[in-house]
Amino acid sequence: MLNRPTLRDHDPKLRKAGNAFVVSLALADLVVAIYPYPLVLTAIFHDGWIAGYIHCQISGFLMGLSVIGSIFNITAIAINRYCYICHSLKYDKLFSNSNTMCYVVLVWALTILAIVPNWFVESLQYDPRVYSCTFAQSVSSLYTITVVVVHFILPISIVSYCYLRIWILVIQVRRRVKPDSRTKIKPHDLRNFLTMFVVFVLFAVCWAPLNLIGLAVALDSRLSRAIPEWLFTASYFMAYFNSCLNAVVYGVLNHNFRKEYKRIVLIIFKFHC
């Protein structure tokens, strides 16, 4: 009688297929730092936008690309972890190397598709409160509600479901609720799951205030006057600060990242000395 495959039986290359989404997430974080952030700093120093309309549109587009790309990649990571841990028998077929690359391309195709409507409703505008060209929540109430639901609430719901199922399985395995089960979770897999779970929680916490403000204003335009400017500004910069946190999470929770960080710091230190 053939033994049922466990998480230990997978090809290491297939186990690492999920890392493609982590690299894709890192790319999403990097996009916003290369182009939009320098222009934001320039606007802060000059107390106004001086780069012109075209750069404003490009900056707003890349910010949207980073934000939506991040949440879509976080969703893909959650689905990948869910399939790997909760449906291990199907994982090899679903997430072969070729399939994974197709999924990554699909994530970015959906990301670009989600940003395109902004040009039709002219919602990418300069906001002097945050010195950025970004999505203007007040342009269209219906569009703002759609953006919050499709770009935040729906992905967060999917990710929450996936991680809830994973946590249930982890607790069952730890407590050995099913002693006859051959399902095993390696410590390495558990650490990877915890790392990406923390990434998800930080994203949800950082982006929730800004999305809730946008949703509230879209449902009742009178609230736009009641919301203090400092609260909107704080929620905005809190949201975009999230792009800086993922690298910190990887360094704190992942031994390989810590090792590479130390190596890079030592190389930089020796170079300057």
Tell me what you see in this structure.
By secondary structure, this protein is mostly helical. The chain is 77% helix and 3% strand. The protein is built from 12 helices and 2 strands, in the order αααααααββααααα. It has a two-stranded antiparallel ribbon with strand order 1-2. Strand 1 and strand 2 form a beta hairpin. The radius of gyration is 21 Å and the shape is globular. It starts with 11 loop residues before the first helix and ends with a helix.
By DSSP (H or I, 4+ residues per run), the number of helices equals 12
C-alpha termini separation: 64 Å
Total number of strands: 2
The proportion of residues in beta strands is: under 5%
How much helical structure, as a percent, in the residues?
over 70%
User: In terms of per-residue confidence, which ranges show pLDDT below 50 for 5 or more consecutive residues?
Assistant: 1-11
The run of helices and strands is: HHHHHHHEEHHHHH
Strand order of the largest sheet: 1-2
Instruction: Compute the average pLDDT.
Output: 83
Helix-strand makeup class:
mainly alpha
Radius of gyration: 21 Å
Largest sheet: 2 strands, antiparallel
Q: Which overall shape is indicated by the principal axes computed on the Cα atoms? A: globular
- Classify the oligomer: single chain
